[in-house]
Structures are given as structure tokens and as C-alpha cells.
Amino acid sequence: MFTYDEIKSILDNFSIAGKLVSFGPIDDGHINDTFRVVYDVGGKEMCHLLQRINTTVFKKPDELMANVDCVTSFLRDKIIASGGDTERETLYCKPTRTGKKYFVDEKDRVWRLYNFVENSYSNNSINSPAVFFNAGKAFGEFQRLLADFPIDKLYETIPDFHNTGKRYRNLVNSIEANPKGRVKYVSEEINFCYERRNETYILTGKTLIGDLPLRVTHNDTKLNNILFDKTTDEPICIVDLDTVMPGLSLYDFGDAIRFGANTTTEDDKNLNNVSLDLGLYEQYVRGFLTSAGESLVPEEVRLLPFSAKMMTLECGMRFLTDYIDGDVYFKIHYPDHNLDRCHTQFALVADIERKYNEMMEITAKAYEEICGKAL
Ligand code: GN1
Ligand code: MG
CATH code for 129-371? Predict the structure, then answer.
């Protein structure tokens, strides 16, 4: 949807060497527009990652970019201190010609340029259990590295992003408004949420009374937000930092399970394919506890299975809300796409409920073996 000239005129505002050779879209996310751009620098190819930030979703791009810059600078310092490779182990923003972290074009579109992590790939599904162990280790490590980050420096760029109770309330508001007349098609789905509404405020309630600590959280820990090294298959870099905010470690854990331990994709029409893979759950718990276990309080560990259920329910409610609203938030690829996504999420919630006791046992055993503590 963007021409070469348009992309070039955007890129001309960034302080980068060489000549633009080509660009191509990277189509993974539901929110931003992303392009890999290739430059010729004295006969050598050099890639960058250009992104247009969706300002309908991210209403305060200045605060968002301040968060991203703060967190990536903090990570960079830690990576340098441990002798790592800052080009590959974290994203960082390349400045504009006027020294800003992002560029606003004449149509008020907001653009930023990241380093492109070479020789890397991301996974949309899991082809071996080790991949998911590594994913848990990577997001656990992200939390561990940021454990001493001064959290009051971060803006809450999307207030109540993972406040499941508020998400439930938003759903109710949309049902009442019923702007597209679609409510009549989704009474079963609405009932599914209604039956679980008393669980939606447990995590925020426990935070309020001090049982769960606020931490720097990524908030979008889908498997495909980890870059793996093409040569070693080790995780190298966490990407998609737009929702880095103060939050709960459980948001990051639960959302990762929602996406990665599901035996099928987020929008599979065949619900028989949907289930929670207990083997994968165990891999992720073990990876996560290996890197982050020591820094978690026992209540966080105890609630790991619950967080998987809540993040899945919440995501399903968000897809349902967007379907009722007329598909205004998530990019869809066909009519009813949001409804299909909602169905997979609710089928997964139901399966998590069936397997809940086993998930608790797996968690307690892993905690004991890895951290030497009983739950
Ligand atoms: C959105 O754009 P993407 O795929 O990284 C959404 C997440 C959802 C996810 C569902 C800012 O993420 O919260 O879990 O879709 N991001 C935002 O696939 O709303
Ligand atoms: Mg995202």
C-alpha cells in the first residue's frame, strides 16, 4: 500500500548512510505497519526495520517512544556490561536527522526506524519443545534484566491494558451500544464471559492489596515476538516493545501460554484443533522459572496457571468486543475473522479449565526442582 517513493521520502528524514535499494512488508502484527528496508552502503547491503506506529491504538506516541527508548537503553547498558552484542540482543531506535526518536510525516503518521537483527527468525508455531523452553527462558530473562529498572520512569501508554475486569466492562459497554447489530449472533460467547466475570478482577485486586508486585512487563509475549538465531536456534532478542509498561509478570507469562501452548493458530476455524499442550506448558514454566524464578514471589508462581486462563479469556473478550464494535481495532483478513479468533480463545480457556489441576502440579514440581522451594 506504500510506494517506493513514499517509503523513500519517509526514510530521507532519518540519519542513515547509503541508498535505498528495496523494501518489503513484514506482515506479522495486528497493529503496526512494518517494513524491512534494504540500503546499499558502498556496495554492502544494510537492513533496517521501518515501522509506522498505529496512533489509533497508541494515542501517545511520544510516551510510547520514551518507554521504548528508556527500556532499550537500559538493556543496552546491561548487554555491554556482560560483553554482549548490542546490534543483535536488543532493538534500538535510529534517530531522525533532527535527532528525534521518531518522525511525523505531513499526514501526521508516526514512523520509527529500528536496527534489523540479521541472521534471525521468529516462530509462529512450535516445531520442537525446546523452542518453547527457550521462549520461556527469553521472556524470563527480559524480566530479570529489568528487575531493577526504575519503574516510575515508565508511562502507562495504554491504561488498563491487561486489566481483565475493565476489558469485561468494555465488552458489556459494547453489547449495550451494539453499533452493528451483531449482538444477536453472539449470545453464547457473551454468556461464556458472563459465567467467568468474577474471575476477571482477581489479578488487579491482588495487586491493589499488595500481594502481587508491579514490574516492567512486555505485555505482548507472543512467541513471534522473540527473535531466534538462525545458526544456533538460541533466542537472541525480544521485539515489539510498544506495550512495555508497568504491569504484572503474570501478564507476560499468561499471554505467552495463550499463544504458544495452544496446539493450533489463533484463528483456526476448526475448534477440534484447539487445546492446551501440557508438555509445552511444562517447557515454558521451566524455561521461565530458570531465568526469572528467583526474582518472583511465591504468589506469582502460584498464579501462573490462572494467568494463562485469564490472558486467554481477556484476549477472547477483546476479539469479541471488536467484532461487536465492527472490527475497528484489530486488523482482520476476512469478515468474522475476529469471531473466529474469539472462538479459539474461548475453546482454549475451556481446555485450560479441564487441565487446571495438572497445570498446578507441573508448576509446583518445576518450582521445587528449579528454585528449591515448595509452593
Ligand atoms: C495485538 O499487533 P500484535 O499482534 O503484536 C495486540 C495484543 C494481542 C494480539 C493478539 C497493542 O498484538 O494485545 O494479544 O494482537 N496488541 C495491542 O494477537 O493491542
Ligand atoms: Mg504487539
Answer: 3.90.1200.10
Note down pLDDT in tens along the chain; length 375 residues: 789 999 999 999 999 999 999 999 987 778 899 999 999 999 999 999 999 999 999 999 999 999 999 999 999 999 999 999 999 999 999 999 999 999 999 999 999 999 999 999 998 888 889 999 999 999 999 988 898 899 999 999 899 999 999 999 999 999 999 999 999 999 999 999 999 999 999 999 999 999 999 999 999 999 989 999 999 999 999 999 999 999 999 999 999 999 999 999 999 999 999 999 999 999 999 999 999 999 899 999 999 999 999 999 999 999 999 999 999 999 999 999 999 999 999 999 999 999 999 999 999 999 999 999 999
315 ligand 1 Cβ < 6 A: yes
CA 331 / ligand 1 centre spacing (Å): 10
What is the distance in A from the centroid of ligand 1 to the CA of 315?
A: 9
Cβ of 240 below 6 Å from ligand 1: yes
Task: Report d(CA 187, CA 173) in Å as an integer.
Answer: 15
Nearest one of 181, 133, 114 to 289, comparing CA atoms: 133
The label of the residue with cell 499468561 reads 254
Q: Ligand 1 atom closest to Cα of 219?
A: 13
SS3 105: coil
Neighbours of ion ligand 2 (CB under 5 A): 220, 240
Cα(303) to ligand 2 centroid in Å equals 24
Write down the domain spans for the chain: 4-118, 129-371
H or E element in which residue 39 lies: strand 33-41
Q: Is the CB of 30 under 6 A from ligand 1?
A: yes
Phi-psi region of 32 (alpha: psi -120 to 50; beta: other; left: phi over 0): beta
pTM of the model: 0.90
Q: Do residues 168 and 293 touch, judged by C-beta distance below 8 A?
A: no
- Note the ligand closest to the C-alpha atom of 29: 1
Ligand 1 atom at shortest distance from the alpha carbon of 243: 11
Residue nearest to atom 13 of ligand 1 (CA): 220
Which of 72, 154, 65 lies closest to 117, judged by CA? 72
Q: What is the spatial distance between Cα 219 and Cα 242, in angstroms, rounded to a whole number?
A: 9
CATH topology classification for 4-118: Phosphorylase Kinase; domain 1 (3.30.200)
